[in-house]
Write a structure and sequence with these properties.
alpha+beta
C-alpha cells in the first residue's frame, strides 16, 4: 500500500516541490534500502560478504531484494547519479555484484527475483512468479535462460497436501516452468509434508529430485525444447490453495499427464523426455515430438526401452514421474 501511494504521489507531482519527496520518504521509513550507486555502501557490503566467505567459511551468500531496487528511487545528489528514477539503481546493483564476484571468485550467489541484469553473475534465484494457478504461463525462462542460472520457489501451501493430486499438480507445473522442487515459500508446507500421512506426496517429490540428480545436464541445467503432443491424456479436477490459512481456493481442470523435452547445453545430443502423472490412476498415453526422430530408442528406468515410430506410447503409474533419455543423431 505504501509503495502504491508513493508511486501515485510521484506520478502526480514529478518535478514538483521537495515537500512531496520528503513525504514519500517518510512513508517508506519502515523499509528503505541503501542506494546501490553509493560507492561507500558498495564497498561496505562487499567487504561484509567477503568477510563472511573467507573468515567465517560461508559457502555462499544470499542477496535479498536484489531485483526490487527499481521501485526505490534515490534522491541524493552526492552519489554520482541524477536524483529520482532512472538506471542508477540497476547499474549500482550490478556493479555491487560484480565487486562481490571479483573478491570472491567461485562463491555461489543467491538473489531474490529473476532479472536479466544479473544472470551472468548470480547462480540461483528465489522467484515466486509465475504462479502455478496461472495456466496460461509461457515457459520462457525454462526455454531461454535455464542453464545460465537456477530458479526455485513455487508458492505451495499446506492445504494442497489434503489431496496428493492437488500437491502433485502444483509441483509438476513448477518443474515444467523451470523451478527446482522443494522450496515452497512458506515453511509451514514442509512442516506438514514430513508428517507420515503424506507419504504419497513425499514420494512424488522424491521421484523428481532423483531424476534431476541423475540427469543434471538436462533436467537441472538444460534447455526446454518444444513440448510433445500428448494423446489419450484425460483432464483432472484439482483445487489450488492460494493462501497459507487455506481460506482462498480456486478450482481448476488440468491435464493428468504432462510432458516436456530437455536438452543439455554442454552436450546438445543428450536429451530427456520428462513425464508426470498427477492423477491417482495409471495412464497410458501416446505422444509425438519434433525433437524425437523416428527410430530413436529411448531408455527409461532399469532396462526399459521404447522406440519412436515416430510416436511413443508409455504407461505412467499413478502419481509418478518418468524420465526417458536418448541421444539425438
Amino acid at each position: 500500500y505504501q509503495r502504491e501511494a508513493a508511486a501515485k504521489l510521484l506520478g502526480e507531482n514529478w518535478g514538483g516541490d521537495r515537500a512531496i519527496i520528503d513525504q514519500v520518504a517518510s512513508m517508506r521509513a519502515a523499509f528503505i534500502p541503501m542506494c546501490s550507486a553509493a560507492p561507500a555502501w558498495r564497498d561496505a557490503f562487499s567487504k561484509l560478504v567477503t568477510t563472511n566467505h573467507h573468515e567465517y567459511g560461508c559457502d555462499g551468500h544470499y542477496l535479498d531484494q536484489l531485483n526490487t531496487n527499481g521501485i526505490y528511487p534515490c534522491f541524493s545528489e552526492s552519489h554520482g547519479h541524477k536524483p529520482g528514477f532512472g538506471q542508477a539503481p540497476w547499474k549500482g546493483r550490478r556493479e555491487l555484484v560484480e565487486l562481490i564476484r571479483e573478491k570472491n571468485p567461485g562463491m555461489p550467489l543467491f538473489g531474490e527475483c529473476t532479472s536479466e541484469v544479473y544472470l551472468d553473475l548470480v547462480q540461483d534465484y528465489f522467484g515466486q512468479y509465475p504462479q502455478y494457478y496461472d495456466n496460461d504461463s509461457v515457459p520462457l525462462y525454462a526455454s531461454v535462460y535455464h542453464g545460465y542460472a537456477s530458479r526455485h520457489e513455487a508458492p505451495t501451501y499446506a492445504g494442497s497436501l489434503g489431496d496428493p493430486q492437488n500437491f502433485a499438480a502444483v509441483l509438476a507445473i513448477a518443474v515444467y516452468l523451470g523451478k527446482k522442487p522443494g522450496s515452497f515459500v512458506t515453511t509451514t508446507t514442509w512442516l506438514e509434508l514430513v508428517k507420515p500421512e503424506h507419504k504419497t506426496s513425499q514420494e512424488f517429490m522424491r521421484q523428481i529430485v532423483r531424476l534431476m540428480v541423475d540427469n543434471p545436464e538436462t533436467l537441472l541445467h538444460g534447455r526446454r525444447l518444444h513440448d510433445p503432443v500428448i494423446e489419450n491424456a484425460p483432464m483432472q479436477n484439482v483445487t489450488w490453495y492460494l493462501n497459507k490459512p487455506g481460506t482462498k481456493t480456486k478450482p481448476a481442470t488440468v491435464p493428468a499427464v504432462r510432458a516436456s523435452m530437455w536438452q543439455s547445453h554442454q552436450h546438445p545430443e543428450q536429451r530427456v523426455l520428462l513425464l508426470s502423472n498427477t492423477s491417482d490412476q495409471a495412464q497410458t498415453v501416446t505422444l509425438t515430438s519434433q525433437d524425437i526422430a523416428k527410430g530413436a530408442v529411448l531408455h527409461g528406468a532399469g532396462e526399459q526401452t521404447v522406440t519412436a515410430s515416430p510416436a511413443v506410447t508409455v504407461e505412467v503409474p499413478p502419481l509418478s514421474w518418468q524420465a526417458w533419455t536418448y541421444e539425438a543423431k
